[in-house]
Amino acid sequence: MSAFLKQQSVGHRPKKSKVFTLEELERFLETASDDEYLLLKVVLIVRVFGGWRIGKLVSMLVDDVDDRGSVIVVEIPDRKTHKPRTFTIINGSNTVHAIDVFRKYRMLRSENIPHKRLFINYRNKKCTVQPNPEEYTGHSFRRSSATLLADAEADTTIVKIHGGWPLLWKDT
Q1: Domains located in the chain, CATH noted
Q2: Rounded to the nearest 10 degrees, how much is the dihedral formed by the CA atoms of 128, 131, 137, 138?
Q3: Burial per residue of 100-128, b for 16 or more beta-carbon CB atoms within 10 angstroms, e otherwise
Q4: From the first residue on, what is the mean pLDDT of each consecutive set of 10 residues in the chain (172 residues)?
Q5: Which of 83, 88, 127, 135 could lock onto 108 through a cystine, CB 3.0 to 4.6 A?
Q6: Taking a C-beta distance cutoff of 8 angstroms, is the pair 121, 127 a contact?
Q7: Using N-to-C axis directions, what is the helix angle for 34-50 and 98-107, rounded to 10°?
């Protein structure tokens, strides 16, 4: 239905996302610093080899990856179809070997991380544990904003105005 409405809309131009060329992908893998961009390189490799949406990356677990030497096999269960999706990561003919980049990232993972998610926080050449994402929602930012303002000893009226809450009474 939304497609029909968009087509009927005056002046509507459908968006098409750009496509990266092989040369652009290889240039990024070759020239971007691993110290700063290793996680992004692995995300690029997984998304290009697997053809997955970003949401699938969040569900990737360490146990979904099978390093078989000359190939890395990734198999992730599909919650909708209950059939796993599988893809392989291989080294191509370019100077940067995808398997080596993937292994370098995976080796940085500490053994004391309490969860099995593959993608974790990467800063200062280290993989670190992030706060438990299940404990946070989109509303966490709003609550944090109000709490920080109140902790800075802002007047209650200011906090209410900042948050868009109704001023039903005047604070004294």
Answers
A1: 19-133 (1.10.443.10), 136-172 (no CATH)
A2: -50
A3: ebbeebeeebeeeeeeebbbbebeeeebe
A4: 65 71 87 89 85 75 92 82 82 81 88 80 61 59 74 83 72 52
A5: 127
A6: yes
A7: 120
